[in-house]
Amino acid sequence: MSVSQVHRQAITSGVITVQEIHWLAHHRDHFTPQERQVVSGLIRFLQQGVINFGCRLADPVNRRHVHSAELQAV
């Protein structure tokens, strides 16, 4: 896992998992200055409600990630 992978997943799905938050917190002492800026942006997005805590579910037919809001609409 890397900061860029966590960022990409969170931005594309609108969700960041508890495991990803844990990974970011556990590895924060080893981040480059650029990675720290990316993590700061993720924190701002969480505070603003742009991304939310949750889990991503894979759609078994399309094998794509489904946002929890999509499931509630069904």
Verbal overview:
This protein has 74 residues and is mostly helical. The chain has one domain. Helices cover 58% and strands 11% of the residues. It is built from four helices and four strands; from the N terminus they run H-E-H-H-E-E-E-H. It has a two-stranded parallel ribbon. A two-stranded antiparallel sheet has the order 3-4. Strand 3 and strand 4 form a beta hairpin. The longest helix is centred in the middle third of the chain and has 16 residues. The radius of gyration is 13 Å and the shape is globular. 15% of the residues are buried. The mean pLDDT is 83.
Summarize the structure.
This protein has 4 helices and 4 strands; from the N terminus they run H-E-H-H-E-E-E-H. The protein has helices at residues 3-13, 18-27, 33-48, 68-73; strands at residues 15-16, 52-53, 57-58, 65-66.
> How many domains is the backbone divided into?
1
> Beta fraction of the residues?
5-15%
Number of helices: 4
Largest sheet: 2 strands, parallel
Q: Quaternary state, please?
A: single chain
Order of helices and strands: HEHHEEEH
Helix content: 55-70%
Low-pLDDT stretches: none
Could you tell me the number of beta strands?
4
- Gap between N and C termini, in Å? 32 Å
**Widest beta sheet: strand line-up:** 1-2
Q: Tell me, rounded to a whole number, the average pLDDT.
A: 83
Taking all Cα atoms into account, the compactness measure Rg is 13 Å
User: Tell me, what's the shape?
Assistant: globular
